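Hey, I was hoping to borrow your eyes for a little while. There's a protein on my desk that I can't quite get my head around. The fold is given in discrete form, as structure tokens running alongside the sequence. I'd be grateful if you could look everything over and explain what you see. Here's the protein in full, and shout if anything looks odd to you:
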Amino acid sequence: MIRFLIAILLSVSIAFLGSCSKDEDNPTGGGTSSKGSLSATIDGIDWTADLTIQGTYNNKTLAFAGSGKDSKQINITMSNIDKAGVYTLGSISSGSLGSAILTLAPNADAVYSTFPGLSTGTLTIEKLTSTEAEGTFSFTGRNTKGVTKNVTNGTFKVSY
């Protein structure tokens, strides 16, 4: 049930965020695209999003997600950002709020997140424009039973 609600929330957020104009000097606009790459190490096992990748940047909110044929999915959202830098997932950092979610379907207990108060991580944005973003990430996600999963060596490159 929780995984279903999170999936709906993320889908609505990505659809909503994909509807503004672009501005190269102040990259607050952007669209949505399925171009890019996303990979990470999940509890010591290398993983690559080999099914779908989506990214959007709009109104200073960057959101990207990748899904694999193995039903694993990583979603990361960071709000109130307008430049490259290092941001904290799972807490409010310099006015920015970010979260990461690891879903290991089909079990409802297999949703691990960094929502504020659950766990934390780091998102390093190396490039941010009105048409693309790239960088690295790592986080420890926690599920509703308190079980954690470590996501390290994450890399992403998305166009929108």
User: Anything to note?
Assistant: DSSP finds one helix and 13 strands in the chain.
